[in-house]
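Appendix B, Record 12. Input sequence as logged:
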Amino acid sequence: MRTIIITFTHDGMKVAKKAAQSMKDDINNDINDDMNVDIYCHSRCSDNYDNVISFDSVGRVIREQFMNCDRILFICAAAIAVRTLAPYIKSKVTDPAVLVADEQGRFLISLLSGHLGGANEWCSQLSCKIGAVPVITTATDARGVFAVDMFAKENNMRILNPVMIQDISGRVLNGEPVGIAGDKAYKKLLEKTVKKWNGQLTMFGEEAYGTGYETDYQTDYEAAYETAGQSSIDKYESGIQIITSPSAHMIFRRTLKLVPMDLFVGIGCKRGKTSGQIRKAVSSTCDKNDLLMGRIAAVVSVDRKADEQGIIDFARELKVPYKTYSAQYLNTIRGEFTASGFVKDKVGVDNVCERSACAVSKDKRCIVKKTVCDGVTVAIYA
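Logged structural output:
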């Protein structure tokens, strides 16, 4: 995780150093062992400090770093941050978390990507460490109601159509009915969620199925849609649905689609393949196997591909980690793999994509074996 801190004055530097030290303490305490923190200080006062990056134009800093970092802390007037960020803001799904602190460190504002980007949580934690008052204005947080983007983050899910977040949150805030559904694997999670947010969500089909619903969970969404009847369909016009394949049937007229990030993609490729070529190979493999690319939790390969820019960029586009393992370690992974003597001679391991995906997967369950597409090999494990 990469964090940048931007400040313009000596007073701002005091707050920046305090914030940076708190993050380094997290690293030392193994809270965030992958944390990387850089302080950007304006050239008018940067000469007075060591280990800072000097800048003349904050606009240039944001232009270069906005999509290359996970979190940004501005120490300045909020208006400066807003005007600087405005040209680069795209989506709450991809934008980094942004906080703004005043130069005395009295207030800390969660400005951007409060839920999915983690700005609200970061704001709460950092404010305690630097002695600031946290300012969080997200309506669902202020009212203490269900927030679908937080639900997605807490359960390691991706929102496929984030434009629906506003619709769902608005209905919850207004006390309007919102349904929630998923297949049998998510029954307990949904029941727990509905119970936690009593009265704010309804598990779809509960009224229609009655007691039978508990013992014979409905996985055929189309049948559920017909069974529930027109009145139930009208009542739950908007809803949340956990899906795992592109062919899943939507049961609500307006559906926020959630997908579990539970797939691990192993990739091998010829040197110099572009991110577009990598994406095409992975997309084609997913399409042929009725899988959603949104389910990808990590991209993996052998350490000789650690600097393969096409794979790095592809993982960055998906906003997922890119992990690599040594050939020596991959050779220790047990399982049935598609061996290649040629690959063994070149890389030191008989299969890159399957072994690397298996190495990082939780269940060691092969979903798609080695698939070749224009010089790119892809394997998918869960």
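The longest strand covers residues 366-373.
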